[in-house]
Amino acid sequence: MTQSSVPPAKHANRLHRVIVSIALSAFAVTASAAADYGKCEVTGQKGSVKLTTVVPGALSVRPVLGVPGWWNGDSLDTIKDGFEYCMAANMAYRAGLDRVILVSRSFQQILTGQSQGFDIALSEITITDARKKVVNFTEPYFDSDQGVLVKAGTKVDKKNLSSLRYAVERGTTAYDYINDKIKPTEQPKVFNDPPSMYTALAAGQVDAVIYDTPNVLLRAKNSNGALEVVGRFDTGEKWGGLVNKDSPNLAAFNQLIEGLKKDGTLDRLSAKYLTPELGVDPSKVPVLNP
Prior knowledge:
- By secondary structure, the chain is α/β, with parallel strands linked by helices.
- The protein folds into two domains: 58-143 and 237-282, 3-Layer(aba) Sandwich (D-Maltodextrin-Binding Protein, domain 2), CATH 3.40.190; 145-236, Periplasmic binding protein-like II (D-Maltodextrin-Binding Protein, domain 2, 3-Layer(aba) Sandwich).
- It contains nine helices and eight strands.
- It has helices at residues 8-34, 83-94, 107-111, 129-132, 174-182, 194-202, 213-221, 250-262, 265-278, and strands at residues 58-62, 99-102, 120-121, 135-151, 166-169, 189-191, 208-212, 227-244.
- The strands form two sheets. A five-stranded mixed sheet has the order 6-5-7-4-8, with helices on both faces. A three-stranded parallel sheet has the order 2-1-3, with helices on one face.
- The longest helix has 27 residues, at 8-34.
- GO terms for molecular function: ligand-gated monoatomic ion channel activity.
- This is Amino acid ABC transporter substrate-binding protein.
- InterPro entries: Iontro_rcpt_C (IPR001320), Solute-binding_3/MltF_N (IPR001638).
């Protein structure tokens, strides 16, 4: 049997150092992998606000698909940036959380106040008194109204508003506005999501899609001239984050949103993700209020 010339104690020390080095490297890799804010730049003081989340160490968010600029990607797995995604990433970072988890829930589900498994919905949701009876909203983070999206060349003015066939998303404020203010001769057609409305418009099943102005501007810009936004209904609407009534986080979310406003983060996100996508200032779109 050949014996080593290195004393056993030195062998043990060297082995211990190797094991510690490997363990530290593995820990560093694990820690690095755990922190995931997509492609977003996160700023502010990490851990300055405390949230109680459904998944420890993560902020679970209900997004909305099919709205470039807000959530860039075609599926929950591919979204890694956009105004609301990066807003969520900054909120997570400032709350000391390491990642954002996107959770699939229908718009109708979250409006019931009974849907579980998410901390907040950041989904271009208009704050209304009726909805406040069932769910809680954060402070507003974006001003919005309703844009009128049509096929290019479609004539729309205040005189023919009532004769158009409208598409609206189920559960949105657009349905009541069209019925109460426009009083169309044909009831608006109701769809479960924006892509379904756009498909109906392309197929000639409706004349106009009524949806948040920034979103229809995005759709028109990406249509290669096939679609245009001919006006907007100035409804004075504002978007807020939605949480269930039993959420312990409303005050903390308000604190986070106020911080993002105050330090210019939301303005920077708008300049980076919205202005290039929209192609026009939403406030410059002509008002078509009847």
